[in-house]
């Protein structure tokens, strides 16, 4: 998973990278050069140089992973799973009888009702849904009221008059 799907390393990936940094410290203490360490660990010499500076400044604790960057999400993973289950129940189960489609505004209201979290902008809800694996869907069927004969007649009779 990379940035479009939620970004960066997961906890296991961050732990692996932390082990590489701590291994680099052991090699620095053993007297190896930045280039040698980079070749051994399959990283760039610049990374080793940055890690060395962090090590000098803050010791081994300076190289410990600080977790993922950016703002903490408003919803936990468990809450996102609860939201997904609620969305799968459909809009009618949540009081939307008139139209059986989820809109971003409706989902935003559902989130507020379930978790007391208010997203100001529906585009943030769209990103949340994207990360949760949902995608925008177009209705697969046409309106029940659609009359193909009337549409064809309109195209043949009315449209040429309007067009000219």
UniProtKB/TrEMBL annotation:
SUPFAM superfamilies: Homeodomain-like
Domain Winged helix-turn helix positions: 98-158
InterPro entries noted in UniProt: Homeodomain-like_sf, Winged_HTH_dom
Stated name of the protein: Winged helix-turn-helix domain-containing protein
Source species taxonomy: Bacteria, Bacillati, Actinomycetota, Actinomycetes, Catenulisporales
